[in-house]
Design goal:
388 residues; alpha/beta; TIM Barrel; 8-stranded parallel barrel; 8 strands; 47% helix; globular
Length: 388
Amino acid sequence: MTKKQSLLDLPISPLGYGCYALSGAYGAKLEEAEMIRILKHSYELGIRFYDTSSSYPDAEEILGKATKPFRNEITIASKVGLAAGNKVNLSKEFVKASCETSLKKLKTDYLDVYQVHYHDPNTPVDETLEALESLKQDGKIRCYGVGHLPFDKTIEYLDLGEISFVLAEMSPVSTCRYRELHQLQARYDFKIIAFSITGRGLLSGTINSSTQFTNNDIRSIDPLFKKSRLISGMRIAEKLREIGNRHGKTPVQLAISWTIQNPGVIVGLTGPTDINHLEENSLALNWFLDKESIEEINQFIEEEENKLRKIMYEELEGILNSNLSFDYEKTYKDLIYVMEYCIENKLMEYETGVNMYMEILKCKNTDNNSLSRLNEIKSKIKSLVNLN
């Protein structure tokens, strides 16, 4: 293995820009000129870390155009893993070819960070690491990390490779993955890149149970915006508003500051497609939350999580024990809600859970066969999950 790239050599700001929303994940997609304007303005505001992926439509090309004038003053991180048809591929050949494609799209000779995006059960970890090390030796990447992997696979990468970063969803409404990873940081030399640090907008305090998302907005099916999770998130947003009022800050600014000040977090990703929201978020670059406020937020989060754990378990029982459903849309969203809980809380094998989740997504239409299939999946989940 080659020597790990010193993180001190990378220009990293505590707040970074994540390009997922630029691909239209949260609804309408912006015109290219507006995307470039936002990315350039983020640099003017002090952001120096940019996260994208080969699987975000057009995002690499647009990021490359926008950052070309200041390429050497920023850190660019991209991801590898998703192939055609949303199949995961981490073979040596695919990783190296995908990197070359990303470099061309980003109009750069090197990537500062190259990240494994998803788990590929058909490729050994050491084969993927061999590809990453080869790219590093060739100067195509400076360092590498991992993202949405099961916990045991994350540890395998940490044991076998020179992992510099691990991606983790993290905010005051999502702390599970951070707690899991932070306990490993005393043993392994890596930093956490936090994403969805504003709870995908939930912590703005402007979203409630009446909010309707368009069908092309991933939040329309996101469990974070459903049932007791939404209600809990709204309570946390209100607590952030209360504390923020004492500091003259917004709930979002509190959420960002709290997240990026947690030990082991090197950067938090925000990805607003609105200039005003970008400027609001970027104020967190020059403001630090005091220790007393952090402790107050931590205590409130702990209380909320304890309440939510019991309520969500009851919701899970209610959904899985309910009678045969004839409401397609409700069944579809309920099962996504259940599966995220099951995967996150390890109520079934990770690969089994992911496979069932993908089966649910395949049923996204309204014919009777799909509804029948959803009810079959519900029965299968019930047989696999011990509710006692």
